[in-house]
């Protein structure tokens, strides 16, 4: 048993297990090399699409880039919203990615004559954010999105009068939390992973996970019991639901999945609902589906990001990433099951995530896929940091009575004990993804 334990556990973890000090190689202080500046290596269609799949992918990309108005050619914005296009949130390093370097929320606050005040937590060089309140005024749980902006004052919303939420008071009461956009590169591959593959991976490496204090659980749909996998808390089952909910919540556009306005204030409703719908009067095949369906098709066939070329430093960082326990949650690769699309059928998915929820101290979060991390600027669910070291160390938490300590505490402890050269190799590996 002990011989097996010594083989299974990471070498760097063994000194901690037996009470010895970890050997420090503090030859220099490792630094996050920052966002890769080479070509995006992302934003195009996945290999192997049929001619018709490629046509619908292109139509989905056009819809993803559309800018919404309250009334006009692309109607439906508001009455409350966070931004006016999908691509505005998902644009770094290419369409489908994450929050861009310059935050478009600052400009949209007063676009078309709108009278919004930019909230204090929205900065021109900060991440695109949505805001949530932890609790309602009566003390019951909230957790829902409170849109940053209203259409009040816009020249395409005459007569509408709405107040923005009181974010300053919510912040003073410690009642305010944030989320940033999740990249959707390779999302169709993630959707095509069989539940059996997720569960088999959860049951693997039992002794190593036991030593590191890692468990994790799948999130499941309340009705059919199947595993959900999209969103910061794996709350969405499919890309279609993910798209429909985001269209309604982020842009205020009602659709066939979410057909009611989130705010029905008289004088602020200008269109029939659902505003986004199947176009039964069209004969061109790509013109018939709703925007929501087009978004889902685009994400389904969007290629995963391409990693940088391997170097000795990257190779060592990859080895250490596994050795110190990071890969136990950030699983390097899973495989899709049988798919109705040949491009997604039984393919490797190098996502670096187990798609499970883990206790991270004050709450539970899905293991964020790391592919494409090398070209992201903002990290963690709220975008609080642009630095890899800070992001890694933020995984450590003593938690609360509900969730207990973070499952990442032991891994971050070992990471923090590494010398500069090994830490730098891990940073270089992560920025290669």
SSE pattern: HHHEHHEEHEHHHEEHHHEEEEHHH
Shape category: globular
Derived structural class: mainly alpha
Range of strand content: 5-15%
Spans where pLDDT lies below 50 across 5 or more residues: 1-25
Mean pLDDT: 93
Question: Would you give an account of this structure?
Answer:
There is one protein chain. This protein has 433 residues and is mainly alpha-helical. The protein has two domains: 2-40 and 194-228 and 310-432, no CATH class; 48-184 and 239-302, no CATH class. Helix content is 28%, strand content 6%. The chain has 15 helices and ten strands. The protein has helices spanning 2-8, 14-17, 51-65, 86-89, 105-108, 167-172, 187-191, 195-202, 206-212, 239-250, 291-300, 312-323, 388-393, 409-417, 420-432; strands at residues 80-81, 130-133, 149-150, 176-179, 219-220, 227-228, 334-335, 348-349, 357-359, 364-366. It has a two-stranded antiparallel sheet. A two-stranded antiparallel ribbon has the order 2-4. A two-stranded antiparallel ribbon has the order 5-6. Helix 3 crosses helix 11, helix 10 (239-250) packs across helix 11 (291-300) and helix 12 packs across helix 15 (420-432). The longest helix has 15 residues, at 51-65. It is globular, with a radius of gyration of 23 Å. Mean pLDDT is 93; it is low at 1-25.
């Amino acid at each position: 048993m002990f011989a097996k334990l010594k083989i299974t556990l990471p070498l760097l973890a063994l000194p901690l297990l037996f009470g010895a000090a970890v050997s420090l190689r503090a030859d220099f202080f490792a630094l996050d090399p920052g966002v890769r500046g080479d070509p995006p290596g992302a934003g195009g269609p996945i290999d192997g699409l049929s001619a018709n799949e490629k046509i619908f992918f292109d139509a989905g990309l056009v819809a993803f880039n559309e800018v919404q108005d309250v009334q006009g050619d692309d109607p439906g914005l508001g009455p409350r919203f966070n931004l006016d296009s999908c691509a505005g949130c998902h644009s770094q390093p290419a369409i489908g990615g994450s929050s861009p370097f310059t935050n478009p929320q600052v400009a949209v606050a007063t676009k078309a004559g709108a009278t919004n005040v930019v909230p204090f937590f929205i900065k021109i060089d900060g991440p695109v954010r949505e805001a949530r309140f932890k609790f309602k005024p009566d003390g019951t749980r909230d957790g829902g999105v409170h849109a940053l902006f209203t259409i009040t004052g816009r020249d395409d919303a005459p007569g509408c009068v709405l107040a923005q939420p009181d974010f300053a008071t919510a912040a003073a009461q410690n009642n305010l939390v944030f989320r940033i956009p999740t990249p959707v590169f390779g999302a169709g591959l993630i959707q095509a992973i069989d539940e059996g593959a997720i569960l088999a991976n959860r049951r693997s490496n039992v002794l190593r996970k036991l030593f590191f204090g890692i468990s994790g659980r799948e999130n499941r749909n309340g009705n059919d019991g199947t595993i959900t996998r999209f969103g910061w808390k794996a709350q969405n089952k499919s890309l279609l639901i993910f798209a429909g909910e985001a269209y309604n919540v982020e842009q205020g556009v009602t659709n066939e999945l979410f057909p009611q306005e989130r705010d029905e204030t008289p004088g602020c409703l200008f269109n029939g609902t659902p505003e986004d719908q199947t176009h039964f009067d069209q004969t061109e095949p790509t013109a018939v589906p709703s925007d929501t369906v087009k978004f889902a098709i685009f994400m389904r066939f969007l290629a995963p990001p391409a990693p940088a070329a391997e170097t000795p430093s990257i190779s060592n960082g990859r080895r250490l990433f596994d050795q110190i326990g990071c890969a136990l949650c950030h699983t390097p690769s899973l495989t899709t099951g049988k798919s109705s699309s040949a491009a997604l059928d039984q393919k490797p998915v190098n996502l670096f995530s187990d798609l499970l929820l883990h206790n991270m101290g004050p709450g539970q979060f899905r293991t964020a896929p790391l592919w494409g991390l090398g070209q992201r600027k903002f990290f963690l669910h709220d975008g609080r940091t642009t630095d890899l070291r800070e992001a890694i160390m933020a995984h450590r938490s003593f938690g609360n009575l509900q969730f207990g300590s973070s499952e990442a505490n032991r891994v971050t402890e070992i990471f923090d004990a590494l010398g500069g050269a090994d830490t730098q190799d891990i940073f270089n590996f992560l920025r290669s993804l």
